[in-house]
Design a protein that fits this description.
about 210 residues, alpha+beta, Phosphorylase Kinase, domain 1, Transferase(Phosphotransferase), domain 1, 2 domains, five-stranded antiparallel beta sheet, three-stranded antiparallel beta sheet, 6 helices, about 15% strand
Length: about 210
């Protein structure tokens, strides 16, 4: 069942666009902001996310088709992906399927990073697998940005690793091994990424103890 969803900065609702099933992502006003600045911020974030979605697609990563960019209403009208988020899918499938999907996930993240794209919110809730397609679909680039810094690649992967560790603890070791395997096959930064991940993880553990 298609349900409307509301996040911190936007609302998602399902509505057909010229008879096509579509997802409308609306960035709504914030009353605590100055009205003119609020609109400029929402406008900027809407355009920025659209550019990241397009750039990711150019890099070979499946993202929803952008049907319309409605600047005046700070809204993106996107292709509705008929599939299941990895968060739930990974609990239902075989070990072999988990390995295949996780390796593909690693390859896709490698493609994003090779193109200088930081997703910013890499979790298994923001990746969809459609039964009709072999590719994974990456969604919600609202926190994304452009960078070629190894530190930013590491943080992006660290967020994904933490999501796997916390949400998929029973399959974490094997699943994460396959993610890194796929990433190394594609990423031009793979030589130093594991050391960077260890460094970031160590900083995180230190902060938790403080």
């Amino acid at each position: 069942m298609k349900k409307d969803l509301r996040g911190a900065e936007s609302k998602l609702f399902f509505k057909k666009w010229f008879n096509l099933p579509a997802l409308h992502k609306v960035r709504f006003p914030k009353s605590y902001r100055i009205k003119e600045l609020d609109f400029q911020f929402r406008k900027s974030r809407t355009i920025h996310e659209a550019k990241l979605l397009a750039k990711a697609k150019e890099a070979g990563v499946r993202t929803p088709i952008i049907y319309e960019i409605d600047i005046s209403n700070t809204t993106l009208v996107l292709e509705y992906i008929d599939g299941e988020i990895l968060k739930t899918l990974l609990t239902k499938i075989s070990k072999k399927e988990i390995q295949e999907i996780c390796e593909q996930l690693g390859k896709d993240v490698g493609k994003l990073h090779n193109a200088g794209i930081i997703h910013g919110d890499l979790t298994t809730s923001n990746i969809i697998k459609s039964p009709k397609e072999k590719q994974l679909t990456f969604i919600d680039f609202g926190l994304g940005y452009i960078s070629n810094r190894l530190e930013d690649f590491g943080i992006d992967l660290f967020l994904l690793e933490r999501a796997f560790r916390n949400t998929h603890s029973t399959i974490f070791v094997e699943a994460w091994k396959m993610v890194i395997k796929g990433y190394k096959k594609i990423s031009t930064h793979s030589k130093n990424i594991e050391n960077k991940l260890l460094e970031i993880s160590s900083r995180g553990r230190y902060s938790e103890r403080m």
